[in-house]
Amino acid sequence: MKAIMCIIAATLLTACSTVSPHDAMQADVDQATAIIQRFEAIPEKGIPPAVMRAAKGLAIMTVTKAGFIGSARGGTGVVVARTEKGWSGPSAIGTGGL
Fold first, then answer.
1. Cα-Cα-Cα-Cα dihedral sign, residues 23, 28, 32, 37
2. Which end of the chain is least crowded, N or C, by CB within 10 Å?
3. Which residues have C-beta within 8 Å of that of residue 35, sequence separation ≥ 6?
């Protein structure tokens, strides 16, 4: 089992190392923008305006989960916070677990 996890981790690290951090962050921002636009295109399932007005922050993440006997999950995304002048710039966030 440890050998399988090591192979998976090595594969993920190799795949992630070919993309620069800037490009990865830009891809997350682009994906978050597309998600918000898709939500706005579906009014009956969109984010209610009252919720957006009261929100102090917003996190948008893409998480992948896989498993058979055990499971693993991981994902990345962006988070923005409401400031006195509007919304902050995006910050990168990530999650993972076994």
1. positive
2. N
3. 60
- Burial 24-51, CB ≥16 within 10 A → b, else e: ebeebbebbeeeeeeeeeeeeeeeeeee
Task: Average the pLDDT over each of 34-48, 67-81, 84-98 and give the range with the smallest value.
Answer: 34-48
The confidence score (pLDDT) of residue 87 equals 86
CA gap 88, 90 in Å, rounded: 6
Report whether pLDDT(10) > 50: no
Q: CA 19 to CA 33: how far, in whole Å?
A: 20
Rounded to two decimals, the pTM is 0.60
Q: Are strands 57-67 and 86-87 parallel, antiparallel or unpaired?
A: unpaired
Q: Is residue 17 scored above 50 in pLDDT?
A: yes
**Cβ-based burial of 54 (10 A; exposed 0-12, middle 13-18, buried ≥19):** exposed
Q: Quick one: which H or E segment has residue 76?
A: strand 71-83
Q: Which sign, positive or negative, has the C-alpha torsion 97, 9, 64, 22?
A: positive
